[in-house]
Amino acid sequence: MTVTVQRWLSDELAAIGDGSILVAGEVDIDTPGGATDIYAIDRLADVNALDGRRYDLAIVRLEPDNSDWLGTSHALGRLQHMLADRVLAIMAQGASEEVRRNLLAQGFRLAESCADALVYGYSVTTYNEPRTWNSAEHWAHPDNFDKRRW
């Protein structure tokens, strides 16, 4: 059974609890967990005018054929790195492949394929997972410089 975006979002919002939420665009949200700190803006481009306050979750509605991807990319980057711990980007099922590729290039992952839309997610805590090979214990340790040569 495929769920709708609104149903999937209500489950996500229940997990947030009383955290702060930023909503950009036309997103219909229902807050069963009682999140009282909800800030809504009309367009994604309006995030550039926000102050440096940090939100627990940002929910963004993306346009299916986004002609100004550069501006969208800058706004999403600001959300990712300065304004929100988690970002959910919602777009229609018929969105162009270019928009999907651009979201993946910015570190978003497909979170859910709902009946009426696709939801891509970004979380600052899971974006850069630690890799065992990239540590001082394996190859970047100064004590190993004279021991192992290629």
Walkthrough of the structure:
- The protein is an alpha/beta fold and 150 residues long.
- The chain has one domain: Vaccinia Virus protein VP39 (Rossmann fold), CATH 3.40.50.
- 24% of the residues lie in helices and 25% in strands.
- The chain has 3 helices and 6 strands.
- The protein has helices at residues 5-16, 69-83, 97-105; strands spanning 20-24, 37-41, 55-61, 84-92, 109-113, 117-123.
- The protein has a 6-stranded mixed sheet, with helices on both faces.
- Helix 2 (69-83) links the parallel strand 3 and strand 4 (84-92).
- The longest helix is centred in the middle third of the chain and has 15 residues, at 69-83.
- The radius of gyration is 19 Å and the shape is elongated.
- The termini are far apart.
- The mean pLDDT is 79.
